[in-house]
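Think of the structure tokens as a kind of shorthand, similar to the way a musician reads notation: each symbol stands for something richer, in this case the local conformation of the backbone. In the example below we present two proteins back to back. Begin with the first one, reading the sequence and then the tokens, and try to describe in your own words what changes along the chain.
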Amino acid sequence: MRRITLFTLIAAWTLLAGSSATFGQATASGTIQGTVLDKSESVITGALVVIASKATGATRAASTSGE
């Protein structure tokens, strides 16, 4: 009986420990706001803005709208 209980505890611990890794797969989101200006401080419409994550290597690009 003790052997079955020990096996059950080890199996339960393994399942719980393994399931915690799945929580790291959540999607993170955020917002970056700003204005792209030229030397005369005029708004640049259609400027390409690229951001990159050093941690993951992921990149995102967007064009400015002029608003």
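Once you have a description of the first chain, move to the second and do the same.
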Amino acid sequence: MRGKLGFCGALIAAMFCFAASAQAEPGQVNGPAQVKMRGDALCDVPAKCLFVEEAQAKAFLEKHNPPDPTVIGMLVHEEEKWMAVFSYEDIGYVKDEDRDAFKSDAKVSELLDYIRQGTEEANKWRRQHNAPEMRLVGWEVRPEYDSQLNKLIWGVQYHDQANYSSKVLGRHGVVSIELIGDVGQSAKMVGALRNVTNRVTFAKGATYAEWTSGDKVAAVGLTGLVAVGAAAAVAKNPKAWKAIIAIGAAALAGIGWVFKKIKGLFGGGE
């Protein structure tokens, strides 16, 4: 696994060499540009980035991961060697009344315990599919919530990798962002996560501030989003842990092989 992760940056670069060799294929957008995703979510794609639309993003990820219907797109950076996977869950308006919980060491420790339990559930699935198991170490980035922008970020450190995640809250649901890249560049990855998260917003009519009485309200708060992810919190089903690792840890486990097949997926042949 370490070998595959070590080649992650080079493989992302190879993907970009292919993408830049001609005009963007259908289903791809070269930055700078603004793209609209499912759920009225918007992404400002910067220069030197490639945005992969929903259908191609799913095909890319599902080569070595369980299908995840929540995926809505993917962003890859040419020079910084990372990729961000976007998903959307129409769970409703997430109230941020528990935002002060992240200031409590006890609550943050409790959240880590929930994630540890989820990791053990995920390991059962990984053992069945001959994937490397994961051992939780602690926070890479302690959960933090921006009450002005209604965005939540955190990072979790495992024994041989880190997962970087964020949530962008909207009127009707939540965009989730999972960042995948060089495990040896923590500061760069955290900076990239903040940058990508700031580039994702909602279109007029779907913003968090436009919620009105009568709109659907989510059954989970901010701490719930961190503890198990929006999809699992709503499903209340142990199998939903598959969805969590599908675009996070499990994506890392198979990313090397998938990048080798990227030309075939995107029309360039193998």
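Compare your description with these statements about the second chain. The first strand starts at residue 28 and ends at 30.
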